[in-house]
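Appendix B, Record 12. Input sequence as logged:
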Amino acid sequence: MESEETDIFKYEDVLPLQLMYEELKRQYQVLQDENRKLKAESSKWKEVVDDYRARQINIEVALKQALGHVKHDHDHDSKESVHSHVHSPAGATTSSESPRFTPRSIDRIVNEAEESAQRRPTIIKVDHSAATVEESPKMKQERPSSCSISEPPPSISLPAASGSMIEGMELRPTEQRKKPSVQIGTLKESMILNTIPLFSKAEGFRYEGLSESPPPLHISPTSVMTLSPTLNNEMLAAMSSQSWYRDYFVGKDHQNFICADSPLGGSCIISTKKERTNKSMDFNDVLEQEYYRVIVRARDGEQRLVIPASVVDQRDEYGYLMMQINPLFANVKLYLCHDPELIDNLIDYESKSYPKVFKFGVLYCSRGQKIETQMFANTQTKEGASVSKEYRDFLHIIGQQIDLLGFKRYAGGLDTKRSQTGEKSVFTEWEGNEVMFHVSTLLPHKPNDEQQIEKKRHIGNDIVLLVFEDEDVDVPFSPQTVASKFIEVIIVVRVEKKKDETGEEEVFYRVGIASKKMIPSFPPFVPDHCVLRKDDPNTGKWLLAKMILGELAAYRGPSFFEKLRISRNMLITDSVKKFQEKMSE
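Logged structural output:
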């Protein structure tokens, strides 16, 4: 029995249980996303059927009215023809006029009605007490087989139009709209949404929140992301993993081993701590009563392990523990270092490997703006001129506006002594992380500089770029809009508005993510065509988590990995050399 328990944890050199747990959570999240997609697809079909049914009913009403006019005019013309035949002089010929409605004219009326229904919003009044229009056999035949209409279609009342060929229906050209949006009316709600995609596809990028299908014409309840006060366990686990040594080792009984020539390549430092199972831990049901928490720091990165105590022979505790970390450590000499200064060095190493301070770029994009010079030209005065109210509200959601002069917290490279990088900026702190935003509209604007070098100097050197779009933008944002060698993650937030049943306007944020394909995926993940509520208090936290974890993921990508590898190797080598010399004195 004991050997069977041991085999459970031996997955090729003891696969870390925490990594297994995170992978299972990731797979669970994928299944949840698929479930949300299926629900959204079902809701989309219902709206399609409602709109299809409304247009079909309009056409049938128009056809019935047209046929009624034809019958009435035919009877009227027949009477007049008889009357003229009786009273006309002998030998006079009477020319019979063709009726006003012919089969061709009826087809034309129906075609125009259908085109009008597609171009203009369908105005529908529900009156269940009135007579209903029966569903035609053609409608039943053309209706999607996966959808059903359980309720009888409501009666339709169309607005009267003087001079129209069919009473109650107005046929006139569609007015020019101010933005490329679609306005539709359904049986339940009326709304205006922008159908322009969030991104134009660019080579080398991976996208979230998008799909091959165009954006929906409506915001359904299933498309609104529900954010819990604690966000989700996957995100919190990823956030807490930044400070493993500080959270689980510092101030507690643990051991630090140093090695100048490890089998992992170059120097390495290993920290170990024996613990008992904590009921509050997520993997409580998996771990045994006792286990070892281990951190292995080497040239190519940091490995975090949880090893059950049952696989470690207590007669040679640390020898067997090192064998479980890597069998090659059997022939390597390690030194146990008790110097408190090493703990300070390891805290500093962790803070540099997993930073707690971040700087993100914020770019404002309004209607008609396609290139970076147009977006960098946007400015924001004290009165908020040249930017929308929704943009100003959004800045308050992601942080608070601060005066840069004399600011004592993390400034992200902005000048806090002479205000040469602007007077104000946006700053926030969350989960122990300090974030300074490089807001394009708050950075100094120079009218004679078309490129706005001062703004691009900050935003172009950020790893994560947040783009805010007004609801009437007319072009998708290209990930290649801002020329930069450092931007790895781009988050586009676009305003969407709709009216609820009471007529009150609700504001949502449609979110899309573009990240370099070479960097790992990172939570929280975005289902296709989902939106965030503006008034949800967790919206700002969700965006902050996505930006922070996006930057941490970029550090593991090829653009930064080699630089961090060199820096990490220097820190470890210098620490090992320093404390080996102190121990030999």
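The chain has a mean pLDDT of 74.
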